[in-house]
Amino acid sequence: MRILIVDDHAGFRRVARRLLEACGMDVVGEAGNGREALAMTEQLCPQVVVLDVLLPDMDGFVVAHELAGLPSPPRVVLISSLTRAELGTRVDTAPVAGFLAKEDLSGQRLADLAGLPPWPG
């Protein structure tokens, strides 16, 4: 599974990369904002984009809609330090595979939400 991590906090990106790579997942890149996420998705063709909701230049929901419009869109899993309840119905109406609180990120949870086969890691 080729993964792109999108979050404006470099520390979280490092932790997420280590956690997912320890499960045997292939993190192909990291982006710190929405514009980078869109460019890197077109360049790297990840299967899954782990996308923070709160980005400095674009709302993560806007990025998710842009990604959904690509010819071969990746599966998008939204992440946030906010709870799903705090985000309201926007998660339900977004073109995404699911939502994870940052503290709940794991290889298995990501694979489950992205609709991929059970992950051995």
Report on the structure:
By secondary structure, the chain is α/β, with parallel strands linked by helices. It has a single domain, classed as Response regulator (Rossmann fold). 40% of the residues lie in helices and 21% in strands. It has helices at residues 10-22, 34-44, 60-68, 84-87, 90-93, 107-113; strands at 2-6, 26-31, 48-52, 75-80, 98-101. It has a five-stranded parallel beta sheet, sandwiched between helices. Helix 3 (60-68) links the parallel strand 3 (48-52) and strand 4 (75-80). It is globular and about 35 Å long. The relative contact order is 0.20.
Number of strands: 5
Rg result: 13 Å
Structural class: alpha/beta
Unreliable residue runs: none
Essential attributes:
single chain, five-stranded parallel sheet, alpha/beta, 121 residues, Rossmann fold
Question: Would you kindly provide a brief summary of this structure?
Answer:
By secondary structure, the protein is of the alpha/beta class. Helices cover 40% and strands 21% of the residues.
Outline the fold blueprint.
Elements: E1 2-6, H1 10-22, E2 26-31, H2 34-44, E3 48-52, H3 60-68, E4 75-80, H4 84-87, H5 90-93, E5 98-101, H6 107-113
Parallel strand pairs: 1-2, 1-3, 3-4, 4-5
